[in-house]
Design brief:
Number of strands: 11
Strand content: 25-35%
Number of helices: 4
Number of domains: 1
Helix content: 10-25%
Structural class: alpha+beta
Radius of gyration: 17 Å
CATH class: Alpha Beta
Order of helices and strands: EHEEHEEHEHEEEEE
């Protein structure tokens, strides 16, 4: 029985912006630290929830109208953090150190477009971050100490130009990274949305 996927709008950093050495270092901390694959790294700007017939096309159309007036902007990643706390981390993420106001404005514009089109979306306060790892079990004291050292370090990702948003579908796979499928890509400025039935990839 196939699982229903969740839809969300996201910005995908190009390859190399998030150092693979950082992902490998996190993966080496403890078997309970499950890192995403490099191709699975993204910044969610609006979460829509479960897919439904016609929803992806409607969301892409709404985003296309919003993106017609959107200018490109630079984004720099850096500063590791975690949810919910350093005492008991469940998610480790890489934040945004430059360009966050532009990304926040993009998220707000997309949310306003979805609301105007009466399309479902989460609507919670936007928090700019790229999930790098999820912790799926108990950590030893040594592993917690290493994670805290990483969180305190001045680690940085690269800078890239944001010129499009993607509509992604995420499907959970037991014991493996989530499977992602690009449903549409919407470029900034007057453009045509590319509606995709592309192959899924895992992140």
């Amino acid at each position: 029985m196939s699982r229903q996927g969740n839809l969300f709008l996201a910005v995908r950093p190009p390859a190399g912006v998030v150092p693979e050495t950082l992902l490998r270092r996190l993966a080496g901390v403890d078997p309970a630290v499950r890192t995403v694959r490099p191709e699975g790294v993204h910044l969610t700007v609006q979460f829509l929830g479960p897919d439904a017939p016609g929803l992806a096309t409607a969301v892409a159309g709404s985003a296309l109208q919003v993106m017609a007036g959107q200018s490109r902007f630079a984004l720099r990643l850096g500063r590791l953090g975690c949810f919910p706390s350093e005492r008991k981390p469940a998610v480790i993420w890489l934040g945004v150190v430059a360009g966050e106001s532009s990304l926040r404005q993009l998220a707000g514009s997309l949310g306003a477009g979805l609301a105007a089109a009466k399309l479902p979306f989460d609507g919670r306060r936007f928090r700019a971050h790229c999930t790098l790892a999820r912790i799926t079990g108990n950590l030893s004291g040594a592993a917690l100490g290493e994670i805290r050292s990483l969180l305190a370090a001045d680690l940085a990702g690269g800078q890239f130009e944001v010129s499009e948003v993607c509509l992604l579908e995420s499907t959970a796979v037991a014991g493996e990274p989530n499977r992602y499928t690009v449903r549409a890509t919407i470029q900034f400025g007057p453009a045509v949305a590319h509606i995709s039935n592309g192959r899924p990839y895992q992140g």
